[in-house]
Amino acid sequence: MEAFQPLRSIEHIPPVERKGPEERFWETFDEKARIRLTGAVQGVHFSPLGSNQVAVTAESRVTILKSSTGDLIKSFPRTDTVAYAGRYRTDGKLLVAGTESGLVHLYNAHSRSILRTFSGHKSSVRSVYFTIDKLRVVSASDDMTVRITDIPSEQCLLSLHHADRVRAQTPCPASPHLWLTGCYDGAVRLFDLRLPSQKPVRMVWHAQHGQVDDVCFLDSESSTFVASGGGSSVRCWELLHSSSDVEAGSQRALLAELEPHRKAVMSLALDATRRRLLSVSLDGALKVHDLSVLSTLHTRSIGAGCLCMDLSADGRSLATGHVDGQLRIERRGVSKPSGIENETNVDERSGEPDWASLARGHLDRGDALRPYRPGTRRYFLRGMYAKPDSDIDDVILGDGDSTSGTSRRRRRQHDQKPYDHHLRRFAYDKALSAVLETNQSGLIVSMLVELDRRKGLQNALSSLNEQQMITLIEFIAKHIADSRYIQVLVPVSHLIVDMHHTKDSLSGSLLAALQRLAARVQQQVHHLGDMEKMAAAIELFLS
């Protein structure tokens, strides 16, 4: 006699979430380090000599960390106040950082000594850059000026005045004499450092009475395409159609406004191919924008509000600094060349997932440490002199007690659910009543299918009292539009209607439940009619 099988809820395979190539690419970035610093991270910058070192500015110090593990390599002397925006020179030999007191410190990246200290700003220096010729430092400050300082002579060569605090700047990779700035008056200005007039040659309006927290050039071979981030928006501009007048040139120069963030955009970055623009915001989201079609491709969460971001020159490492003092370093996996698997030792394999070890079992057949699996050819050919393994070879059937089988059988019966207990005794009405009390849709539908298979569904329905019948009708009205259950619930609803349409007197509550079921069915019929009309219209366009 076949043993009784307990009722199981219907399990549906969830829909496959198809991921696009962009999402699959950014999911290859694995978090290598998460470091908690003493203060908010004000700047991150990868070394131009490689992605194995990153300069991190937090609190009153600039430190250099190993990007693969987050270990400290060296730290520079503390500043008198909060430090900002530590940045390497293109040759990796010098490093510069601004401070809240208005000073700019120039460090030797190898000896950790302070080579120069530039003064002249009256307020915080939030952004510092080296010019492309490596001989000057450009600093942007909250005192509404951008100063170009000569490193050998420590003299200020030029001062560019703005209408508000300057928090963003960047050099033009195609023309070293062009400099782009972003100001808290909402304007993006392009300066020519060769001109003594100190007036911008181009200007666009990012946001009226808004702020610009970062700017960047989009094309390394042109000085006309730029992007600005400020407020919750990221905008792309073509400066060729702009002018030195904000109101006159902004509307013509705007190329696109990309998908906005929920909070202020703090940093922009370009990938190694300069085809993707990355933006991070205080909302903790990183957005990837496609510059070829000027649209947003991907959005991912990176934790708390982000203040700064940098992508390494090879595009494999990403560092983000957050307001809560966390530094996150992510690195994209590198595919191993052929032959590397043979050099992997056993200790490294211990942490691999199950599917990887299973696949490896078919590849490294010469591995003597691989365990024998019963049923395989290797297990059969191990020889008659092989010592038995208790974990593999021994099969324990019981504890030696003659009543062990009876005890297990009684224990299984005791652990049965109430609906399984009634179903085992062919009390179909009580089984249906018990399963309705669980309020689990998959379990209720499974019970209806089982009762129909046993030819006891109609008897179970006729034995329900009024309240139980109302509960079942409400369940059908709620889930009859569900594509997973419709093939079961429609025949059940037909049986319920056939049972009650001949009765002359129905209670008010039961009649109201049947009317709600009829209204729900009529609503779905109208929806199907609208969908058929829409399908016909689509076919008309496609034909």
From TrEMBL:
GO biological process terms, semicolon-separated: positive regulation of transcription by RNA polymerase I; rRNA processing
Pfam families named among the record's database cross-references: UTP15_C, WD40
Top-level division of the source organism's lineage: Eukaryota
Keyword Repeat: yes
WD repeat residues: 118-159, 258-299
Keywords of the record: Nucleus, Repeat, rRNA processing, WD repeat
GO CC field: nucleolus
Cited PANTHER family: U3 SMALL NUCLEOLAR RNA-ASSOCIATED PROTEIN 15 HOMOLOG (PTHR19924:SF26), UTP15 U3 SMALL NUCLEOLAR RNA-ASSOCIATED PROTEIN 15 FAMILY MEMBER (PTHR19924)
InterPro entries named among the record's database cross-references: U3_snoRNA-assocProt_15_C, WD40/YVTN_repeat-like_dom_sf, WD40_repeat_dom_sf, WD40_rpt
Protein name, entry field: Similar to U3 snoRNP component Utp15p
SUPFAM superfamilies per record: WD40 repeat-like
Main subcellular location of this protein, as a coarse class: nucleus
Native source organism of the sequence: Cyanidioschyzon merolae (strain NIES-3377 / 10D)
Chain residue ranges for the region called Disordered: 334-353, 395-420
Annotated ranges, domain U3 small nucleolar RNA-associated protein 15 C-terminal: 410-540
Keyword Metal-binding: no
Compartment(s): Nucleus, Nucleolus
